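ok new one. same drill as before - structure tokens go in, u give me an amino acid for every spot. 455 of them this time. try not to just spam alanines like last time pls lmao
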């Protein structure tokens, strides 16, 4: 029996190597015995090492095909979710999707559009298109997802990116370069890979364009949903809306909004209902309390962990960043005391500029923020845009419009009823599930002190 690599690879780039399974493995070489190598002539040793290197390269290439998610570019603060789960678990709580009935939620539009382009209607490299060949995956995803939010009584506000800050342009250039590389890789995979492999690689070439954004803005306005075009970063504007009390929380998969100081942040709110993943709610006040940091220190932890505005220090991840900030209090003090041989500081490291962007982002001042108003859907406009221009099914669009209208009435009725609820009796006994944490801890200690149970 022989180990055979399952995926065919081009002979010009790789040499196929087959090795007997019975041959022992050791430090001297993959699948070869020490004596074989030591006694071989120089040319044989060279060929063996060459084949071993080619085998390793081939294995890595196949692994890359099977697990391309490892190569997908990450955005936002690196590893922040895990850092908070490990060090501030009480600041995170699972909520049901339905629990946000009547809540106004600001949503990072670009992140949602990107997800729709990757997932909706994709088969291999093919995506949903209209008769003119224009992609409509983002419209289908935005239409269906927004209706789901409205039916749950949620009042979404979509915020779109404006001009990126100068510090982010370097990061955007890196993303452009990676997409260009992924496009070249895709051409090779089309010749040698399966349909699944081609689809995985094609997702790495996706880019949200200006046209995608304009299409979604037009759709949302026709649906009666408010749209905000941020002066700069959408996450920063989402956070500003939350700080001013215009919305209850920010919804995104990018954790930057917490670094911008959003009081509440929601992950998985935009997940499809089929996944049945609970919404994860974060509270910045509880995060700071559990981490025992102030907001400036939390921002410094995020910069050290890795953000979109500057390089991080190689070797310093989230846990190390948290430890160093707790020990030294700020990045400046860390740089004065850090072992510079072990941790090399990037040249001209713009951490101060990054910090200022998080603390003083370019957002609308409170009295200049666009009005948030949810209107009735424009039925004729939706049918013209979706059916006539983009080939959507007429019956489905008509039924969807009825859902939007019903959802609007349901949400309005729910808010009116809240004004007539009886006042809460403050003297009523606290229910067990509402028992404060301090009382729970006290009860646990009392129970522990009671010794063995009586039989």
């Amino acid at each position: 029996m022989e180990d055979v690599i399952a995926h065919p690879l081009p002979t010009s780039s790789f040499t196929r190597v087959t090795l007997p399974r019975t041959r022992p493995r050791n430090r001297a070489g993959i699948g070869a015995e020490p004596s074989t190598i030591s006694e071989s002539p120089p040319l044989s040793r060279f060929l063996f090492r060459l084949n071993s290197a080619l085998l390793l390269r081939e294995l890595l290439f196949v692994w890359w095909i099977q697990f391309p998610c490892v190569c997908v570019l990450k955005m936002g603060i690196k590893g922040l979710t895990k850092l908070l789960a490990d060090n501030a678990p009480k600041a995170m709580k699972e909520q049901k999707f339905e629990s946000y009935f009547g809540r106004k939620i600001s949503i990072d539009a670009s992140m949602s559009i990107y997800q729709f382009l990757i997932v909706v209607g994709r088969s291999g490299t093919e995506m949903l298109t209209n008769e003119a060949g224009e992609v409509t995956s983002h419209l289908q995803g935005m239409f269906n997802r927004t209706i789901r939010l409205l039916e749950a009584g949620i009042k979404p506000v979509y915020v779109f990116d404006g001009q990126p800050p100068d510090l982010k342009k370097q990061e955007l250039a890196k993303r452009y370069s990676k997409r260009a590389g992924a496009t070249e890789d895709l051409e090779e995979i089309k010749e040698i890979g399966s349909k699944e492999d081609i689809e995985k690689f094609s997702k790495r070439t996706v880019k949200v364009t200006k046209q995608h954004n304009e299409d979604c803005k037009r759709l949302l306005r026709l649906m009666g949903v408010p749209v905000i075009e941020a002066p700069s970063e959408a996450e920063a504007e989402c956070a500003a809306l939350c700080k001013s009390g215009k919305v209850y929380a920010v919804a995104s998969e990018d954790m930057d909004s917490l670094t911008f100081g959003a009081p509440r942040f929601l992950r998985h709110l935009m997940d499809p209902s089929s996944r049945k993943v609970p919404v994860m709610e974060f509270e910045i006040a509880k995060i700071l309390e559990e981490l025992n940091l102030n907001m400036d220190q939390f921002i410094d932890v995020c910069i050290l962990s890795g953000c979109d505005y500057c390089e991080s220090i190689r070797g310093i991840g989230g846990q190390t960043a948290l430890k160093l900030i707790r020990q030294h209090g700020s990045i400046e003090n860390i740089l004065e005391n850090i072992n510079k041989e072990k941790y090399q500081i990037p040249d001209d490291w713009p951490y101060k500029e990054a910090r200022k962007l998080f603390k003083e982002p370019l957002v609308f001042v409170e009295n200049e923020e666009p009005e948030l108003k949810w209107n009735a859907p424009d039925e004729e406009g939706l049918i013209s845009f979706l059916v006539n221009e983009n080939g959507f099914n007429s019956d489905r669009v008509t039924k969807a419009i009825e859902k939007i209208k019903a959802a609007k009435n349901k949400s309005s009725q729910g808010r009116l009823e809240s004004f007539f609820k009886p006042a809460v009796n403050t003297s009523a006994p606290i229910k067990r599930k509402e028992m404060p944490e301090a009382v729970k801890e006290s009860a646990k200690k009392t129970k522990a002190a009671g010794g063995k149970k009586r039989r």
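Strands lie at 2-3, 19-20, 92-95, 104-108, 155-160, 227-229, 249-251, 264-267, 279-283. and btw Residues 166-192 form the longest helix (27 residues).
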